[in-house]
Amino acid sequence: MSLPFVDVSPFLTKGTPPSPAKEASAKSLFDACHDVGFFYLTGHGIPKETCDLVLNTVRTWMLTATDEEKALIARKDAGVGEGDGARGYQRVGENVTGGKSLSRKQAIDLYATHPSAPSAPPYAPLHGQNLWPNTTFSTIFNSYIASILSLGAALMRCMAVALSLPEDHFEPFISPSFWVCRAIGYPPLTPQALAENPGGVGCGAHSDYGCWTFLLTDGTKGALKVEAKDGGWVDADPVEGCYVVNVGDMLMQWTNGLFKSTVHQVVHLGSNYRVSVPVFFEPSWDAKISPLETCVARTGGKALYGGVTYGEYLLGKVAGNFYTEGK
Ligand SMILES: O=C(O)CCC(=O)C(=O)O
Ligand SMILES: [Fe+2]
């Protein structure tokens, strides 16, 4: 099995009339999401220079920031200092995928601003401010994330056509998106790294919990692995000029299982330092998500999932990602 390709270019400009090119893109998106849940996205319009700048910014900081600089933006539990239980820097081994498997990676987690975020701490979970390494980093990332949000909205228009809905059907649900972005570094597998974290090889097997993941990675091959229908693993190696995009659990629920949220993992056994930057494109904090009628009709007539408010659903997911301090 290899991952399919989807060209989103006919949907980049909002308000353009229906066209055969749109129909073809929408059909390829439907097939990719229904059959695999992972695909290479082409025609996205984000320049290579932008992508290189984002990756290099992460690589440089991860490899040159001192322990003190990293500690300054460390993730803390909600209510502790600037902490909101989610945002900030995580050391190798701090993140636990799905509440169980130790990850051998370091990362800075960034989130959209909560619609009722207070201006100063203490912060309730996910109600804080992003903890940025420096202003160059935040300028580069804020601009990059804005581009991905436009792209995410284009993919939602494509999805609407794929499901025979009006092109703007999803707009009220995603404006504004409560996005998540993770700047990740996977250290090389040295004997010392293995000794410090014997079980961890990267990022444990999981499915993503939101809608779409737009994954930007460096050129490292053989690291990201996608579960195949027969239970084996398929390498989702980077393809120049493409994003690896995958369907998350929320989108699977929204489509009543028509789109598949596929399990994947990162096993980075190489001698290089691997960098990846997933942006998770999500509904609004207050969006109410329940299976779409058209999808229920196409999947046997019975809703397989109850409704959720996206923000509450996310809070439940994020709570399982870290060891709680003091426990
Ligand atoms: O680093 C990667 O290639 C993927 C990371 C990932 O799956 C995630 O953060 O959800
Ligand atoms: Fe993932």
UniProtKB/TrEMBL annotation:
Residues 187-283 form the Fe2OG dioxygenase domain. GO terms for biological process: small molecule biosynthetic process. Transmembrane segments: none annotated. The keyword Nuclease does not apply. It holds the Pfam family 2OG-FeII_Oxy. SUPFAM superfamilies: Clavaminate synthase-like. Keywords: Iron, Metal-binding, Oxidoreductase. PROSITE patterns: FE2OG_OXY. Coiled coil: none annotated. It comes from the Eukaryota. GO terms for molecular function: metal ion binding; oxidoreductase activity. The keyword Translocase does not apply. Belongs to the iron/ascorbate-dependent oxidoreductase family. This is Fe2OG dioxygenase domain-containing protein.
